[in-house]
Write a structure and sequence with these properties.
This protein is 36% helix and 19% strand. With 259 residues, the chain is an alpha/beta fold. The strands form two sheets. It has a seven-stranded parallel β-sheet with strand order 3-2-1-4-5-6-7, covered by helices on one side.
Amino acid sequence: MQLAFILYKYFPFGGLQRDFMRIALECQARGHAIRVYTPIWEGDVPAGFDVVVVPVKALFNHKRNEKLTAWVEADLAKRPVDRVIGFNKMPGLDVYYAADGCYEDKAQTLRAPIYKRWGRYKHFADYERAVFAPESKTEILMISEVQQPLFIKHYHTPLQRFHLLPPGIAADRRAPANAAEIRAEFRAEFKLADSDLLLVQIGSGFKTKGLDRSLKALAALPRELKQRTRLIAIGQDDPRAFQLHSQRAQRYSAFPAGC
């Protein structure tokens, strides 16, 4: 089968992106042809992948998403595929991998009423509805059992279209036999005493992942505990604003992903 995968951005360090890559490689290993549509691709292209970097730009992300959808629809009309798999919510998907939570629920519970008047809200609400509406045919791969009732609450999505994926961890993310040796070398490299505590926060998009809140929590620790606590943030983002913030109250290191 010829499969088409669509995602808004590929880079090697994101959780959604890593899940996409594992699934696409598994599909390829099972004999399927892989075509990928994305406006942004960073990193190596696996052998045999047909990566189409879609030439769309816009001032706002939701406008870029709409241009991407139109461009991909036109290309698929000329070069049809057997199935379309999306890793972001959008119209026209046969399968959606639900890496993100329910947007409509967040809009209703975490935003002011005026938020729903903006074009950004309409775009993301419409794209979510295209996946979860009762009349949609999209099959949904869920990684969070907690989110499923929220989608059903807002969209009345038929239960049979949800497929809850089992939890798992890649073999190369498990502690190796020499884990203690690696730990000792790491603590020596960063001059961490045996009594020091190390907090690690992993996730690209520091603001979205709450690094500012982690810094405030660290600053609020009792003085003795704070003095022997270090925080390392690992992810793809500009750390300068957070470094400036941290200088006032705590010891903190931030490394862009891949360093």
